[in-house]
Amino acid sequence: MSIVIETKDLSREYLSYQKPEGILNSIKGIWNRKYDSKIALNQTTLQIESGKIIGLVGANGAGKTTLLKILSGLVTPTSGDATVLGYRPWERDYKFLKQISILLGQKNQLWWDISPMDSFVLLSRIYDLELSTSRKRVLELAEMLQCTHVLNTQLRRLSLGERMKMEIIGALLHEPRILFLDEPTIGLDIVAQENIRNFLANYVKEKEPTIILTSHYMDDIATLADRLLLISKGNIVYQGTVDEFVKNSNSELAHDEKVDFEEVIRRFLETESRIR
Ligand SMILES: Nc1ncnc2c1ncn2[C@@H]1O[C@H](COP(=O)(O)OP(=O)(O)O)[C@@H](O)[C@H]1O
Ligand SMILES: [Mg+2]
User: Tell me: the pLDDT tens digits for 3-15?
Assistant: First the structure.
């Protein structure tokens, strides 16, 4: 099977300005700025095979979004290297951008003041898609997501769940080979979460894209992911199949103790964060 995402010692450090207290110190700070540095991603080396769904899991601030943003070309690494489909993402080659998509659940990517349908027309222009083809695709996806009735309503008037479905359609419009989904179900009620999860499961069966998915809901990961990537304080602490992870963790437990997937991951990450 072919490798579509590869990183070597990929790191990202952020510098943020430490704002001093008081006006006088603020003024002094203009000449003598103090910066805090934070290593969001630390020497990450990965290989991801084509057609797999990777569940990327870690605590808040672990570096998940940073990794996805680098791999999709939104953020430049500080050091190390990565290739996605043979391209360096941050060089933002148009041929690369046409084959990937990133969905940030915490952020709207469609236009707020127009209807999703109008947004999709604009996106079709950006991606150079035939309008009739993309319209057909929108209707198909909307049907699968059961949201055809809101396609022509201004985005700002939709519920969070409806908006997320529209974002998903926008992300899939150009049939990306690689999909980065950063918390696609965040804040949604259980029914909407399940809808989106089922939709993704069907979509994957049909189109076989490669996906890196982050979520706080372990049901998303357990249902969808073939492989797990656990991250703690910028370090990858586990890479492998979901089954193997559960098997290994269970063998370390006492005989009579039975814990679920979510609990196994929580305990593992807690231990990792203590030793780092
Ligand atoms: N633009 C930024 N400027 C400064 N620090 C940042 C920036 N983006 C992320 N960070 C820091 O990098 C770390 C990793 O963040 P992030 O990748 O968003 O984590 P996650 O998605 O796992 O919650 C956090 O400590 C966060 O505060
Ligand atoms: Mg994040």
Answer: 999 999 999 999 9
